[in-house]
Automatic annotation (TrEMBL):
Compositional bias segments (type: Acidic residues): 286-297
Region listing for Disordered, in residue ranges: 277-306, 323-342
Gene Ontology terms: cellular component: plasma membrane
Subcellular location as annotated: Cell membrane
Keyword tags: Cell membrane, Membrane, Transmembrane, Transmembrane helix
InterPro entries in alphabetical order: Virul_fac_BrkB
Record flagged with keyword GTP-binding: no
Regions that span the bilayer: 32-58, 146-169, 175-198, 210-235, 241-263, 355-378
Protein name: YihY/virulence factor BrkB family protein
Its membrane topology: Multi-pass membrane protein
Pfam families in alphabetical order: Virul_fac_BrkB
Superkingdom: Bacteria
Length: 381
């Protein structure tokens, strides 16, 4: 087991998972899942508007084929006429549906891409680097998120078309078709991850850093798709579970896909750090840059570990920490050049504002209750 843990790939995988958990990866995945659920309905409405535009303006002859197919299936009865009339009204209202879907999809899609970008960049960012996302203006960030959102939708349409065509040919090849279908799913999933790595990071990444991570994410998504089909089949056998099972499965799959995206970006960030983007070791003393570290130093792979080793108790001998030898007046002077990290300062301000609002609200309610009691007492007199 120890030899297995010492392998570079295993060490990198463990470091990626550690980075994912330390940087609140599950919380980011939950936020991405929430906005994914909000985005599903507007996107479906947008696809419906595009379908109406295609069947009524671009290719109205296809609409005749759809009508004749409905009449053949339903036997030309009154039900078929009602269905065709409802379909015609729905397709003819593609303008209003498209405008509504475009506005709502822009709002939810911008939030979806924004949360995805924050989580993605958090996993990729070096240990001691500050976030550049907060420095962008609102309008610039909104336009960029919308461009990525609609670009991702276009990429999904292309991927879906490739998948449908590939599946149609794969069914005619038997076993080879099944293998080809798996490879095709991996390929189109890799395209999706490649698009994310090209558009979401704060800085451009070398292809050799993210190509492997994108391939790993594509393999995980393909595996998840296979097991999702098995789970859906198991739920379909139970009438009670079939009512809520599909909704639960969709939300679970969205959360797992979000986690796969973030773990993939964490893997890429660790690889970039270990191959030259960051130093493998971090000095725990004030050794000048360019000098050799002492032989007693140990390798430090995480920023939290470096901070722990910089504590006073970690930098002194055990004899100095004993009660007989400890001098309470011998306190190290803080470094005036070291500033509080931006995220810590922002978190402190948010906590302070929340406490202030809470205390203010409680004080206001208390004073209001006292004044109400006094007024009531005066009225009784």
């Amino acid at each position: 087991m120890k030899a297995l843990l010492e392998k570079p790939a295993v060490k990198r995988l463990l470091a990626s998972w550690q980075r994912f958990t330390e940087r609140q990866g599950p919380q980011h995945a939950a936020a991405i899942t929430y906005f994914s659920v909000l985005t599903i309905i507007p996107v479906l409405m947008l696809f419906g508007a595009v379908t109406g535009f295609t069947l009524t303006v671009v290719r109205p002859d296809w609409l005749e084929v759809v009508r004749s197919t409905i009449n053949e299936v339903l036997g030309g009865s009154q039900i078929s006429q009602s269905v065709v009339a409802t379909l015609d009204r729905a397709l003819e209202s593609w303008r209003g549906l498209g405008i509504t879907a475009l506005l709502t999809a822009s709002y939810t899609g911008s939030g979806w891409i924004g949360n995805l970008r924050v989580g993605f960049c958090e996993m990729l960012r070096p240990e001691d680097a500050d976030s550049q996302l907060q420095k962008q203006g609102f309008l610039k960030s909104l336009i960029r998120n919308l461009a990525v959102f609609f670009g991702l939708l276009l990429c999904m349409v292309v991927v879906l078309a490739i998948t449908i065509l590939g599946m149609a040919f794969a069914e005619q090849l038997g076993v080879l078709g099944g293998i080809a279908r798996i490879l095709l799913t991996v390929g189109v999933s890799w395209i999706m991850f490649a698009f994310l790595f090209l558009t979401l990071p704060e800085e451009k990444l070398p292809v050799r850093h993210w190509a492997t991570g994108a391939l790993g994410g594509a393999v995980l998504v393909t595996t998840l798709e296979h097991f999702a089909g098995l789970i859906i089949g198991a739920f379909s056998g139970n009438p009670t579970a079939a009512v809520f099972g599909n909704v639960i499965i969709i939300m679970l799959l969205l959360n797992l896909v979000a986690m796969i995206m973030l773990v993939t970006s964490s893997w890429t960030g660790v690889r970039q750090a270990w191959e030259g983007g960051e130093p493998l070791t971090a000095s725990t003393d004030d050794t000048p840059d360019g000098s050799e570290p002492s032989s007693e130093e140990e390798t430090v792979h995480t920023w939290a570990e470096k901070r722990r080793r910089e504590r006073v108790a970690a930098r002194r001998d055990l004899d100095e920490l004993r009660s007989d030898n400890f001098d309470p007046l011998d306190v190290p002077t803080p470094d005036p050049n070291r500033s509080v990290p931006e995220d810590v300062a922002a978190r402190g301000v948010k906590v302070g504002m929340g406490v202030g609002y809470g205390v203010g609200a409680a004080t206001g309610l208390g004073l209001g209750a006292v004044l109400t009691a006094v007024v009531a007492w005066l009225r009784r007199r």
